[in-house]
Amino acid sequence: MFEGLSDRLDRSFKILKGQGRITEINVAESVKEIRKALIEADVSYKIAKEFTSHVKEKALGENVLTAVKPGDLMVKIVHDELAELMGGEQVDINIKGSPAVILIAGLQGSGKTTFAAKLANYLKNKQGKQPLLVAGDVYRPAAIEQLKVLGNQVGIEVYTEEGNQDPVKIAKSAVQHAKNNSKNIVIVDTAGRLAVDEQMMDEISSIKKAIDPEEILFVVDSMTGQDAVNTAKAFNDLLDFDGVVLTKLDGDTRGGAALTIKSIVNKPIKFVGIGEKMDALDLFHPSRMADRILGMGDIVTLVEKAQEQFDEEEARKIQKKIAKNQFNFNDFLKQIQQIKKMGNVKDLMGMIPGMGKALKDADIDDDAFKGIEAIISSMTNEERENPKLLDGSRRKRIARGSGNDIQEVNRLIKQFAETSKMMKAMSSGGGRNMMNMMQGAKGLRR
User: How far apart are CA 399 and CA 406, in angstroms?
Assistant: First the structure.
């Protein structure tokens, strides 16, 4: 995500980090490189020029020339300007209706149906809502079936009307169905349409009038770059939507849509899709995204993801076992499973400041723990509970059962022993123990 832009911006800052005297010429040269980086990221020349003019003005006003670390000061200025360009503050979705009706719009292939299911899953699990998904795409083959499959995955009802080809009537009936069945959220998936298709644009305008949604979200495939921004303007002129959703942000995207769509349509980005799984949906925080673009990581989001999987009672049990030197492979396996629930391993590690660049070319996939899980699964429950039993013959059996070399088994057992010692040291004495550290993380906010 934004890899090319991050690299170019990093090179532009090095102009000011090098040896020699800092001058207005140095600053101008750095700003010129920043403008090139933005244009290469598919930001329009007009917006790139305005952006760098603001950066230059602030840089000279902030006494970059006399700063002890002018490169670092320039990074801060660019960070703040990027965050402002993308909206400044995080904006919540409006779900105050009874039921709250959310209309999903966008181009064909932008990921509307998948997003609708992800949003329903998000509102159900994180806000305790009772959503109803509405299959309003009556034109695309298998669109209704796709939504049914996704709805089944996340345990959410999908409203359909077999044989009805009128999405306006379907949407109205769905809202009434939600009222009759105690659903407090209605998410209406609609057919993809081109802004130049007058008939289809009239149709979605009619759906809006019929159901009077609290929230209209425009879904954009971020890989389409500046074209997506231009399309968003055409849709906004007709629908006056409330927010933007950027999908496929984990793909090979240059980032132009994320950076400029707010300034073009003056509507906030509310969500970003960062993977195919149903929980791969994040609120959009402009400041945190600027952190990630500039290689600063995103520790706040990482902590929030950890908290979602964090069980205080389980943590207390684990802490007691660590203190008594009873932490075992069953406990270790539980910790791995919690980490896996947090999301893609490489993305998670990239949220740690400084790790993004180090991992740029690393091949880390979702199966990163597969070998470890196979080794632990090949142990008997007695061996997992008491790792001291793992002598040479047992290790050979585990290696055969897990499809690993004996060296891999030995390495895991050694790492486990070292980790257990470290965790015991962290949890003992008068220092902040693991529980306190997690509690402290709960208060971490930017």
Answer: 5
Instruction: Give yes or no for a contact between 111 and 248, defined as CB atoms under 8 angstroms apart.
Output: yes
Q: What is the pTM of this model?
A: 0.68
- pLDDT(351) > 80: no
Do 43 and 66 fall within a single domain? yes
Residues 322 and 284 in one domain: no
Read off the tokens for 109. Answer: 């292939």
Q: What is the pLDDT of residues 256-309, one digit of tens each?
A: 777 888 888 889 999 988 777 888 888 888 888 888 787 665 455 555 555 555
Structural domains of the chain, count: 3
CB neighbours (10 Å) of residue 276? 11
CB 24 within 8 A of CB 65: yes
- Greatest CA separation for the chain: 74
Structure-block tokens of residue 135: 């299959």
Q: Distance from CA of residue 203 to its chain's centroid?
A: 32
CB count in 10 Å sphere of residue 353? 13
Same domain, yes or no: 320 and 373: yes
**pLDDT tens digit sequence for 185-207:** 999 999 887 777 888 888 999 99
- The CATH number given to whatever domain includes residue 58 is 1.20.120.140
Provide φ and ψ at 121, rounded to 5°.
-65, -45
One domain for residues 391 and 437 = yes
Q: Please state whether 273 falls in left (phi above 0), alpha (psi between -120 and 50) or beta.
A: beta
Alpha-carbon separation of residue 446 from 284, 306, 364 (angstroms): 14, 16, 28
Q: If you count them, how many residues does the chain have? A: 446
